[in-house]
Amino acid sequence: MKKIVSLILALSLLLALAACGGGNSGAAQSPAGSSSPSAQAEPVEVVVFAAASLEATLTQIADLYKEVAPNVTLTFTFDSSGTLKTQIEEGAVCDLFLSAAQKQMNQLDAADTTGTNEGLDFVLSDTRINFVENKVVRAVPDDNPKDIQSFSDLAGDKLSLLCLGNDDVPVGAYSLQILDTLGIDIAALESAGKVTYASNVSEVANQVKEGAVDCGIIYATDAFTYGLTVVDEATAKMCDQVIYPAAVMKCGGSQASQAAAQAFLDYLHTDESAIAVLEGVGFTVIQ
After folding, report:
1. To which H or E segment does residue 274 belong?
2. CA-CA distances (angstroms) from residue 186 to 132, 183, 214, 237?
3. Is residue 24 part of a domain?
4. Are residues 46 and 129 in the same domain?
């Protein structure tokens, strides 16, 4: 019942804003406003920037959400969290940001207490949550032709070519943590021509799927989505916990789109159907 009430309240806020009408001269500072819902909600577009590893699940959930809020058009941009953060910083309209790591959200959040913030203030106060958790794994092509079985094999003669995300891509940063923990010299691998880089985790997964590399370090959810064989999973000692934060942004299109973004975010982590999609591919939804 608590989950249903939360979603109804958020949707009521959206309906109230739509009923009020009127324009918006710039990015709103808060999705505020309240009144009785109108009989017919006005159309509203919500611009969602999301980590590439969320593409399959959010696309599926978006279809489900049409039944909940048929007046809402969800417009997605999927890419590495670092690229999306830069686009937001450079002035892109974004109502909702879902990052694959805390770093990129912290850089945009003036309330950050970790020292990561870059003097930026894009996160709408009190909307930020820890959304889902993922796992970092090592995946191989079909039949695993190089018989690579563990992260430790990356330092041996079995490896000819490894695919990693760039260091500004969260999965790339986690990958470097794993290699460092295991004492594997990334510079030596690069000098030997044994490393190739990708701009987001989906590109890494594609390289593995196509057999262009011996293995890649990706998320467990991407391995599921691309039907890849997982031969090892990073432990808590190898890299940081993989938490995806999410927040409504101040650089949204309007108060109405911000309110709709909040309603969609509430739906993502409280609705049973949405949770089933996320957990079905390996995410753990954080309550």
Report:
1. helix 272-280
2. 29, 9, 16, 19
3. yes
4. yes
Note whether 37 and 87 are same-domain residues: yes
The residue to which tokens 């000098």 are assigned: 191
Parallel, antiparallel or unpaired: strands 129-134 and 136-140: unpaired
| Cβ neighbour number for residue 150 with a 10 Å cutoff | 11
Residue 258 forms part of a structural domain: yes
Assigned domain for 278 exists: yes
- What are the backbone angles phi and psi of residue 46, rounded to the nearest 5°? -115, 120
Residue among 24, 6, 9, 1 at smallest CA distance from 257: 24
Q: Report d(CA 114, CA 50) in Å as an integer.
A: 22
Domain check: are 108 and 25 in the same one? yes
Whether residues 184 and 227 fall in one domain: yes
Q: Give strand pairing partners of 77.
A: 49
Supply the pLDDT for residue 21. Answer: 37
User: Taking the chain (287 residues) in consecutive chunks of 10 residues, what is each chunk's mean pLDDT?
Assistant: 45 42 40 41 96 96 97 97 97 98 97 95 97 97 94 93 94 96 96 96 96 97 96 95 97 97 98 98 95
Tell me the per-residue pLDDT of 155-169, one tens digit each, with 9 for 90 and over. 999 999 999 999 889
CA distances 162 to 17, 41, 114, 177, 284, Å, are 51, 50, 32, 15, 27
Number of H helices, E strands in the chain: 10, 11
Which secondary structure element, helix H or strand E, spans residue 132, and what is its range? strand 129-134
Q: For residue 25, what are the contacts with CB-CB under 8 A and spacing of at least 6?
A: none
Q: Per-residue pLDDT tens for 81-100?
A: 999 999 999 999 999 999 99
Q: Is residue 238 part of a domain?
A: no
